[in-house]
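Journal club prep, notes for RB
We'll compare a predicted complex against what the paper describes. Inputs for the thymidine-5'-diphosphate case:
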Amino acid sequence: MDLSNIKIIDIPKITDVRGNLSVIENDVVPFEIKRVYYLYDVPSGTHRGGHAHKQLQQLLIAISGSFNVVLKDQNGAKKIITLNKPNRGLLIPNMTWRELEDFSSGAVCLVVASEVYEKADYIRDFSKFSLKV
Ligand code: TYD
């Protein structure tokens, strides 16, 4: 999958004097939502991710705080995206290598996923992912 397929998605925000409310329904993402999970209490300096998925598509959102997402495609292209807004999501297509790093203190990464957890969908060996190695 080419890195041009990565998208930033604006998540609808409902604002009033009591604060903001953002909602993700199926029309916000280009897949049927099958799973939601979140990363939190990530120790400073920790890297997460470090894998690609054969089929899974995901939307990542910095619900709180910030972190960087390093994305790589199979042809060696690389992009770094900072997520730091609860109403902005990063859509990661399948066959895209991702690493999550530089988590701020208290950061929470919400992940909306197109598939249930399936161990066999992971590619964890970069040399098996990259066509350049
Ligand atoms: P892992 O994929 O290594 O997390 P990250 O994407 O941050 O690198 O997952 C950590 C552990 O949690 C691993 O043992 C698999 C397990 N896990 C589940 O059981 N269900 C899930 O939905 C996810 C995402 C992970």
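Talking point for the session: The first helix runs from residue 126 to 129.
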